[in-house]
Amino acid sequence: MDPINPLEQALHAARARVLADLVTGEVAEADVVSLVEDSVVQRRWWVEQWPAGADYVAGLVAQDVQDALLERYGRWPLCPVCPSGGPHALDVEPELGPDPYWVCHKAGVKVAAVGSLGRATGGMPSS
Question: By Cβ atoms counted within 10 A, which residue in 38, 63, 65, 124 is the most buried?
Fold first, then answer.
């Protein structure tokens, strides 16, 4: 069996991390998973053009899915740390960089690494 190349490893890891957060938020329906797959296909081309960007793929896929969900369904993921002030979405930081995390700009805190929302919400749905 051939080893998986670094590009494919990065793409599979990004897919898994975003899917884990979608499952936490109980929004991992088939049409939403298709949004993840669409992003992975687009980001495969992107990282083939710029191999040094492989470390950035997880954050980019998370942002792509977040943007697609906003257009179709609404904000995701909802902030689990702000008890008042109305529901608002978390943002991915850094916008282009390694080790992406979800942040609440309203409270000014890092909430969880992309792929780890379940820990921030106690394994409970984020909505």
Answer: 65
pLDDT 10s digits, 84-102: 778 899 999 998 999 999 9
Say if residues 55 and 98 touch (Cβ distance below 8 Å).
Answer: yes
**pLDDT digits over 5-48, tens only?**
889 999 999 999 999 999 998 888 899 999 999 999 999 999 99
What are the structure tokens assigned to 72, written together? 């179709």
The residue type at 114: V
* Residue-range domain boundaries for the chain: 6-118
Cis bond upstream, residue 100 (ω within 30): no
Contact 58, 79 (CB under 8 A): no
